[in-house]
Amino acid sequence: MHDNIVAFWVPEEAATAGSEYLIRYRLHWVAEAPVPVSIARVVATRTGHGGAPGQSRPEGAVKFVVDFDGRGFEGLDRESGVEAVIDASRGVIDNVAVYPVVGTARWRAMFDVGADGSEPVDLRMLLRHNGKTMSETWLFQHFPGQRKGT
What we know:
- With 150 residues, the protein is mainly beta.
- It has a domain at 42-142: Sandwich (Immunoglobulin-like), CATH 2.60.40.
- The protein is built from no helices and eight strands.
């Protein structure tokens, strides 16, 4: 977070005293990537109590809701077979759902993570359709017990 070295170059030949190197580069400070991407990007991540509405909440379960901008999902719907590919370093993944958000161009993936103890859970997710990756990879480190009531 406080590192100001973001890039460096290594010349093909060893640097010698008095040598001069002309280097050109460009930096971008923007909210979005400076070049268009062809896959959906994550636009929001939310967490809450795990489980299904109207049912008993599983102890320690946390719900993750991740929204994607929908790029590349044109023409697909809830029945198109879009799936969330989720990996967790530990714990149990449950209640997985993927669907378009009505009235928007976004898609949403939701799932619960159940993990005991205090060790962090590394999460990784992407959206896939017919074997093709449709989104960037979302990464998150969850610390069980940080949410009140879990």
